[in-house]
Structures are given as C-alpha cells and as structure tokens.
C-alpha cells in the first residue's frame, strides 16, 4: 500500500512541477521586454498566474516529501520525469497550444520506458535510514561532482556550458531529495523540534539554493533542448545510485529483468530528449485566452 501511495504522491509532485514551470514561464514572458529586474519582480508578484506557479511549487515540494517518506528514492525521482509529459498536457488543454503528433509520440515513449524501468528494476530490500558511515562519503561525492562540473562550465560553447550546468544542477537536486527523505523520516518519528537538530534540514536548504542557482545558469547559458533533458535524466540516475549507496536498495539479480529495465530507462531518456525538442513553446508572445484572463495588466512603464 505504501508503494501505491508513494507513486500517487510522486505523480502529483510531477504534475505540480509542470504547472509551476508552465504558469511562471507564461507569466514572465508576458511582461514588457523593457522592464528592469525590479520592475519584472513587481510585475510578477502582482500576477495571479505567477502566484499560481508559486503555490504549485510549494505543493510539489510537499508532494515530493510525502512520496519520499512512503517510498524509495530511486522510484520517486524517476517518476518526476513525467513532469515533461504533464507540461505537454497542460499546454494543450489549458493554454490551447498546438501539439504535434511527434510530441505526443515521444510522450508515450517516455511513459512506456518509465513503466518498463520501474516494473523490471523495482528495488527491493534496503533499510529505513542511511547508515551513519555512508552519509559523509555519499554527500562528499555528490558535492565534489557538482563542484567539478560547475568549474568546467565556466568556459566553452553555450551548448557545453548548458550541459555542464544542467548536469551539476541534476546532481544537486538528487542530493536534495536524499536530504528531504531523511527530514521526512525524522519529522514523522520525532517531531519538528528534532528536525531542527538534524543536519538534513540544513542540507535541504543549502542544496535547494544551490540547485536553483545552477538551474538558472543552465537555462541562461544555452538552449533549453540541451539543458532540460540532462536535468530530467541525470537526476533519477544519481537517485538510483544514492538509493543503493545510502538505503541499501537492491535490484533483482535476474539478468533478463535487468536488461529490460535498462532498455526501459534508455527508451525513457530517448523520449525525454525528443519530447524536449518537439514540445510547443509556452512563451506569451501570443497570449492564449487563459493567459489573457489570468495575467494582470502590466504595471505602468517607467521607474
């Protein structure tokens, strides 16, 4: 029963993430191009559409925490890949953006690959909390990997920089999910006071801030078609590694099922790459009826 509950909360988190990205992207691109940074911020905090995205972001965080408390790290983080599919659905049925047949096809490939990966390689065993000796090396390894990728991203072509920043971002978000799972366990067992005495809560805060900065760097320095697939795919890969490393999750030893699981993950990764390339734009250069209805009129130009 806990597995089903975890999957349900993970799907809810993926949908909320998609709603956050779509609504805030439409709201931000609806602002006049000449706005300064502070004017854009003032415009966005007065936009119901952007505030809807904030609410969806909070909901996504809560749903992810509940999913991680009830389920396995590798499963929950893999399901979050479906946020790309939900973005497609939201864009089509809420914003009325045209979606090509190829985009729907790659959405089906993504979901089919995810299901195959989860069914064929569903982890077994494990323990409720990370072993004390595993925390330090695991976090150091993830932090070191993110730091190296960030340093390498300082130079190079836009594609290279976007790819490296995106991979660093995914590394940090996978680590944050590990901290978040630990926080939910402490909160459920010992209460909120104990959470403040546990280092994981501060890990959530630090990794969350760093993850946001790296994500914005990836989006700023290169094309979305490069950064988005890497951010979506690297996260579950590292989450599988962390699930095995910290929680002792074990996969079936049967070679045939392992091979089918690997094929499923490959199909999911391929679907994500091409879905990112074929999905419609959610910019507000041609505002839909939804955007016109919910985005407030831009504030007066000038200082």
The major sheet is characterized as: 2 strands, antiparallel
Proportion in helices:
over 70%
Instruction: Find the count of extended strands (DSSP E, 2+ residues).
Output: 2
Give the overall form: globular
SSE run: HHHHHHEHHHHHEHH
Number of helices: 13
Q: How confident overall, as mean pLDDT? A: 82
Name the strands of the widest sheet in spatial order. 1-2
Compute the CA-based radius of gyration: 20 Å
Strand content: under 5%
Distance between the termini: 57 Å
Catalogue the unreliable spans: 286-303
Helix-and-strand structural type:
mainly alpha
Total domain count: 2
Provide a brief overview of the structure.
The chain has 303 residues and is mostly helical.
Essential attributes:
about 75% helix, about 300 residues, 2 domains, globular
Could you explain the architecture of this structure?
This protein has 303 residues and is mostly helical. It folds into 2 domains: 123 residues, no CATH class; 127 residues. The protein has 13 helices and 2 strands, in the order ααααααβαααααβαα. The longest helix has 33 residues. The radius of gyration is 20 Å and the shape is globular. It starts with a helix and ends in a 9-residue tail after the last helix.
Topology:
Blueprint: H1 2-29, H2 37-45, H3 48-70, H4 73-79, H5 83-93, H6 101-120, E1 124-125, H7 132-152, H8 158-190, H9 192-196, H10 199-221, H11 224-247, E2 249-250, H12 255-278, H13 289-294
Antiparallel strand pairs: 1-2
